[in-house]
């Protein structure tokens, strides 16, 4: 039988994959292979919250992405989140986030969101040691630099998306999208943290009020590790690449930060179905 930790991982993955279905204590305890009484204690012990609260936060987290990045009506988002009315959804959303859905859509407080929606870091991450070596050419990019607290990166992402929509350049459907951290957010002061949001582009970026600039991701050899699931625990996969793979590989690091290639987005798929390639430049 799987260890308790592994069983809770399976339950959380099941929840993420079935957010639009009724999730009963019987279902979840069966997946955890224990009684309802023991399931509740086991789940709280590993996540710090009840399964009911976990489900509610997972639905509200998805709803927040839909509010910020999708043109869906609030009533439709409320129904997708399992609420009988937009009023009930608004009350729950404001109680949790501190903003009404409308206010969040207009000006999302990502700092508050980041704090509240840190679901337990037990969802799938990188597949152990599935590292490939690839060679890539130079890639011209449009990029917008985020400078400051890591919790506000999503606000910068929203600005980059707005530039994309307004200009039609680097369209998300036909361009690659990258995140380039220039430091580990766990080891630098917030005001020293830089993270570029980028997308491939064919020509140079015209002058604009968003602060988007033309840049290049230099070509060369890269170690690539695919991360599955939530972006909240991407750092675990990055550390795995540096700590476990690099010393055994005999490779030397290149002169460019590691970076992320977003293969899909949380407003398109469930969080558990996210896929992100982590690129580690090599000499």
Automatic annotation (TrEMBL):
<dbReference type="InterPro" id="IPR009057">
    <property type="entry name" value="Homeodomain-like_sf"/>
</dbReference>
<dbReference type="InterPro" id="IPR010499">
    <property type="entry name" value="AraC_E-bd"/>
</dbReference>
<keyword id="KW-0805">Transcription regulation</keyword>
<feature type="domain" description="HTH araC/xylS-type">
    <location>
        <begin position="9"/>
        <end position="107"/>
    </location>
</feature>
<dbReference type="Pfam" id="PF12833">
    <property type="entry name" value="HTH_18"/>
</dbReference>
<protein>
    <submittedName>
        <fullName>AraC family transcriptional regulator</fullName>
    </submittedName>
</protein>
<dbReference type="InterPro" id="IPR050908">
    <property type="entry name" value="SmbC-like"/>
</dbReference>
<dbReference type="InterPro" id="IPR018062">
    <property type="entry name" value="HTH_AraC-typ_CS"/>
</dbReference>
<dbReference type="InterPro" id="IPR018060">
    <property type="entry name" value="HTH_AraC"/>
</dbReference>
<dbReference type="InterPro" id="IPR011256">
    <property type="entry name" value="Reg_factor_effector_dom_sf"/>
</dbReference>
<dbReference type="InterPro" id="IPR020449">
    <property type="entry name" value="Tscrpt_reg_AraC-type_HTH"/>
</dbReference>
<dbReference type="Pfam" id="PF06445">
    <property type="entry name" value="GyrI-like"/>
</dbReference>
<dbReference type="InterPro" id="IPR029442">
    <property type="entry name" value="GyrI-like"/>
</dbReference>
<keyword id="KW-0804">Transcription</keyword>
<keyword id="KW-0238">DNA-binding</keyword>
